[in-house]
Amino acid sequence: MNKERIIQTMKGKHVVIFLIIVVACYGLINGLQQLLARPELWSESDNEILVNKCIKDAGKTATKDPDLTKEYCICTTKKIQENFSKQEYLRISSESTGKQFQEIMPVIETCLKELEQKIKGNKNNLQIPNSNQS
User: Fold this and answer.
1) Residue 127 within a domain
2) Is 56 helix (H, G, I), strand (E, B) or coil?
3) Same domain (yes/no): 113, 51
4) Mind listing the pLDDT tens digit of every residue in the chain (134 residues)?
């Protein structure tokens, strides 16, 4: 009887150990899924890189009007970081130019419209010197 009781106790311990393993594995898998699903936060360094790359890509526009270019680049960087996780943006960046345009343009469209309005405003504010005035 003593031997039978020991065997039942061992079986009970095995069940408990098995349940602990199942619960621990579930916790690990669930935690891993949350870690993988959590969007990686953008760092200040990422922000600077995106703004600087945007300014560099602007080329002559950046030289002609550096302040407007910087405002535009800050705006687009903010919109990208608000709408895409870092991983999503890196994935999009690896796509073809056309695919990048399709995914990013709707997000930064307001920045582009603001830039166009400011450029028009600057042109309208230019004063043409009157040659009749002395």
Assistant:
1) no
2) helix
3) yes
4) 677 776 676 666 544 454 355 434 344 344 434 434 445 789 999 999 999 999 999 998 888 889 999 999 999 999 999 999 999 999 999 999 999 999 999 999 999 999 999 888 877 665 544 444 44
> Phi first, then psi: what are they for 130, rounded to 5°?
-90, 120
Within a domain: 67? yes
Instruction: Please check whether residues 16 and 64 belong to one and the same domain.
Output: no
Q: What angle do CA 96, 37, 19 make, to 5 degrees?
A: 145
72/50 Cα distance (integer angstroms)? 12
In angstroms, how far is the first alpha carbon of the chain from the final one? 122
In the chain, the number of structural domains is 2
Backbone angles phi, psi at 61, to 5 degrees: -60, -40
Q: pTM above the 0.85 mark?
A: no
Q: Are residues 31 and 50 in the same domain?
A: no
**In which domain, by residue range, is 115 found?**
44-122
